[in-house]
Amino acid sequence: MLFGISKDTLYQQSDVILAWIVTLLAGGWLLYYITKKEKWPLIMDYIQSTNHRKVGIMYMLSGLLFFFRGGMDALLIRTQLAFPQFEFWVIQGDKYSGVFTTHGTVMIFFVAMPLLIGLMNIAVPLQIGAKDLAYPFLNSLSFWLFFSGAVLFNLSFFFATPPSAGWTAYAPLSLDEFTKDPGNSFYIFSIQISGLGTLLTAVNMISTIIRHRAQGMKYTRMPLFPWATLITSFLILIAFTALSSGLYLLMFDRLFGTTFFMGEGGNPIYWQHLFWIFGHPEVYILALPAFGIFSDVISTFSKKVVFGYTVMVISIGLIGLLGFMVWVHHMFTVGLGPMVNTFFAITTMLIAVPTGIKVFNWLFTMRGGRIQVTTPMLFALGFIPTFVMGGVTGVMLAIPAADFQFHDSHFVVAHFHYTIIGATVLGIFAGMYYWYPKMFGKSLDEKLGKWHFWLFVVGFHLTFLPMHFSGLQGMPRRTYTYIAEDQVFTFNAMSTVGAFLMGVGMLFFAWNIYRTHKSSKEVSADPWDGRTLEWAVSSPPSEEAFERPPEVFASDPLWKSKMGEKELKFIKSTRPGPVATNSFIPILFAGALFLFSMGMIYQWYWLAAVFAIAGFGLLFLRSFLDERIEHYKQKRYKPEDLKKLLHDKRTGFFSYLVIDSIMFLILFTTYVMFTPAPTGPKPEEVFEARTLIISSLFLLPSSLTMLLAEYGLKKGKKGALRAGVWLTLLLGIGFLVAEGHEFYTYIHEGYLIDSNVFMASFYVLVGLHYSHVLFGVGWLSNLLIQQGFRSLPEGLYEEKQTIFSYYWHFVDLIWIFIIGIVYLPYLIS
Amino acid sequence: MGIRWAPLIVLLMLVSGCGIRVLDPQSDTAKVQTELIYFSFGIMVLVLLTVFGLMARFVKKYRDDGSSDYLPTQTEGNKKLEITWTVIPILIVIILAVPTTIVTMNQSPNSEAISTAEDSTGEEVHVRVEAERFSWTFRYENGKTSEDLYLPEGATAVLTLRSKDVIHSFWVPSLGGKVDVLPHKDNVYEIENVEEGVYLGKCAEFCGTYHTKMRFTTHVVSEQEYREWLEN
């Protein structure tokens, strides 16, 4: 080793040992406390619950827990950097890499995301007058997927192998050649699982907002938080899918010997593209909901309607749209050439325009109002200058030649903390103080809240303002020390003091939560004199809050009714709503995925196989325990209601298909980019026309037989339906056999996934399609079994069958693209 | 509100003065970058002052002090104002975009503006930069190699960079911005008219355990000293 540090191993691992001791003690105490206070029934209730408020609370609690974890990492970083050439504890070298990687990953994926999603869960249905999220069961599943991903990630530290390639996991550093221990595999799988949860949440939010708004709640009357949630969810669909696809490829590189991101044939910059196509929109995924919260908070506490509502909505949309056209500004120094750099510089600067519009609209919402400086409002007031400071450095960073200096220095660290803490974290705090009554029926203490605010915000500026200067002084990010000659000591010392101030602020917040729950003071339905619907129901709302939904006549109906303009009426619901249930399946399924991931990470493939099967078993079980079976039997819905229910389901399913399409789009791009490879097998010598024709002869007609089944379903012709379904199933199985034979032949001939990048991109694409067909065959068989054993109630079977046919046609369509893009160009020539 | 941070910024500027490396450029390349930084910072300070000023004014004027409970007029918007704060940012972007484009076209790594061996004017010093975890090797035209970078005063350094393992990034803050050092691909970067001095250089792209220690020194010496050094 070049700079060998010889230290006693025990001391070297003392951070991990301490973490074990503290966690075991705290865990033991927690179990004792729960048992003593007889809280187990309550916990069991939450685990099984699908109610949006309860799921939201679980998101908030786990988000806060990980906030303290990520915050501790931040303090370790700041302590290590307090003095030049300081050696604090063991936090140098790889340990330091582990700490900053964990800090970044945890704060983005397991703090900012769950806290925002938690607030969405709690507030959005209430704000739009929906009974619950569109798919309550899916919501619970999303939470448990997020949670198991987060636990998996945190576990890596307890095994002394945290991920260590930064939260961006740049290849080839993140590949097994350079980071051998399983840390970065933990990164891949934990983010993949929790990302799946986030994607499903986005599907749920989109369906909820599109399909379940109360009567009269037109899009032009929707409060800005649901608006931000809707657009954010669309961003998630695209961005998180790009991340998932990137992680999918990275997994093959790390575990199965492919070389997408390394070596002669591969391309490490491709990972950067995929990561930032996720990463930059992610910034807006974090910021837009916060913007929504601030809009609501500023309007409520200025006692004024939001200034320029329409422009506010348009600018959220524009920010979202532009957010996808700027990712290369993270890569100006990569050497993509002057044209590319210039293009992305201009698009990046343009984002300042809609963002600026929003800032001025907030300011003018306050103008002429009666500003009540409550704690949520205080956070909003802290947000505006802080975020604008992050925004202006953003514009400065958009200039490529200037960015050559700023890039990867502490200047950038300062910039993104100004935007993410300035917008997202302050937004989350504002939202928590604001909606706390809707979570627990209690209000957080205002005085402690102000302590929290001032300590946190002053500490924040003290931490990050000096970083602009240490960056300009030449301090690169992700370095664990500096020398006196670097002349950055003063700045770093200030940052360290500031960080601890923020930490003290957070202790006040924790104390505030504890105190609030100790007190028995209840709070009214409308403690802030609110404007929107959530303040029209009790605090906390009952699970049947909108059994009788309100009739919405304005963007702030509650306010108008309080002003005596028009009474807010609650009417009898005319349409079927989401069906609540209690189920252990979400936590069990997430647990199965967790253990599957452990199997993959340590390459104990038998374990992975067992729990993959267990996961599918749970899905199978779920289809029989579906709460809607009983519900449909009881309700006996009318045909027009059944149609609405199908449309509810379809909205979500089409959103899911967007995810799938983008994933395939990325894999097609991967294939085209890497084929043919410079060395190894060539597509011309691998592909055979015969096998392609046989596979296609099975799969393509199956869409026609599916159409026959749909025709039978629509016209009530049982025979056509049965024939169509069975033929589709048989053709599907035929395809699986034919295509399986093709894979077998290739493997037999020595064309393996690690032969070269062409073979790798072939297998990851066609293999993914194959598993889609396999899943489809399983799904269809399951439907047939369900029909055979206990007939699904009328309406529900039709719904399930229709959704399945969308899936099947989609899978067929992908095959047509595979023929056209993967095979034909090389078979023809 | 936010205005309270302004004195702190000024104070910091005074404390650190011209000592800040990026703001005290020692080559023509870095000078242009610093000018862009100052130019954009100047415009951005105007934006900051506008926002801070408006906010301070509104909060002061309209803060509820409990003396009355009047109901504010519910203003839904104002077309003229909204157009104003749409048009002005667009103008600012245009003003910024012009110098940005010109400099970016010239200075980006692999730009066509970078001189090649063919169109040499004699001012250029071509150096191959090889990065490897966790050290640098500089290879000069006569085949000499060194762990620190040596350049003659006034020269235009044309760097051809490549990594032997993971991605690194070459950065001498006093002389200019970063350029990434990639495996399996050359990047070319140019630093014009370097001034005499000794400058710190660093790896700026995280590359593993001892990324922190992947540093080098750049010595810009007189033409004669450089020749002597090169020949020994």
UniProtKB/TrEMBL annotation, chain A:
Catalytic activity: 4 Fe(II)-[cytochrome c] + O2 + 8 H(+)(in) = 4 Fe(III)-[cytochrome c] + 2 H2O + 4 H(+)(out)
Transmembrane residue ranges: 16-35, 56-77, 97-122, 143-165, 185-206, 227-250, 270-294, 306-328, 340-364, 376-399, 411-436, 448-469, 489-511, 579-598, 604-625, 653-672, 692-713, 720-738, 758-785, 806-828
Enzyme Commission number, as recorded: 7.1.1.9
Enzyme class: translocase
InterPro entries associated with the record: Cyt_c_oxase-like_su1_dom, Cyt_c_oxase-like_su1_sf, Cyt_C_Oxase_1, Cyt_c_Oxase_su1_BS, Cyt_c_oxidase-like_su3, Cyt_c_oxidase_su3-like_sf, Cyt_c_oxidase_su3_a-hlx
Keywords attached to this entry: Cell membrane, Copper, Electron transport, Heme, Iron, Membrane, Metal-binding, Respiratory chain, Translocase, Transmembrane, Transmembrane helix, Transport
Family: Belongs to the heme-copper respiratory oxidase family.
Designated name of the protein: Cytochrome c oxidase subunit 1
Species this protein is from: Halobacillus dabanensis
UniProtKB/TrEMBL annotation, chain B:
Subcellular location: Cell membrane; Membrane
InterPro entries xref list: CcO_II (IPR045187), CcO_II-like_C (IPR002429), Copper_CuA (IPR001505), Cupredoxin (IPR008972), Cyt_c_oxidase_su2 (IPR014222), Cyt_c_oxidase_su2_TM_dom (IPR011759), Cyt_c_oxidase_su2_TM_sf (IPR036257)
Pfam family, one: COX2_TM
TM region positions: 6-24, 36-59, 83-105
Top-level EC class as recorded in UniProt: translocase
SUPFAM superfamilies (UniProt xref): Cupredoxins, Cytochrome c oxidase subunit II-like, transmembrane region
GO biological process, alphabetically ordered: ATP synthesis coupled electron transport
Domain called Cytochrome oxidase subunit II copper A binding: residue spans: 122-232
Alphabetic keyword roster: Copper, Electron transport, Membrane, Metal-binding, Respiratory chain, Translocase, Transmembrane, Transmembrane helix, Transport
Enzyme Commission number(s) of this protein: 7.1.1.9
Cofactor descriptive note: Binds a copper A center.
Cofactor(s) for this UniProt protein: Cu cation
Membrane topology: Multi-pass membrane protein
Reaction catalysed by this enzyme: 4 Fe(II)-[cytochrome c] + O2 + 8 H(+)(in) = 4 Fe(III)-[cytochrome c] + 2 H2O + 4 H(+)(out)
One GO term describing the cellular component: plasma membrane
Cytochrome oxidase subunit II transmembrane region profile domain mapped to chain residues: 14-111
Example GO molecular function: cytochrome-c oxidase activity
NCBIfam families from the UniProt entry: CoxB
Family in the record: Belongs to the cytochrome c oxidase subunit 2 family.
Cited function: Subunits I and II form the functional core of the enzyme complex. Electrons originating in cytochrome c are transferred via heme a and Cu(A) to the binuclear center formed by heme a3 and Cu(B).
UniProt-recorded name of the protein: Cytochrome c oxidase subunit 2
Species name: Halobacillus dabanensis
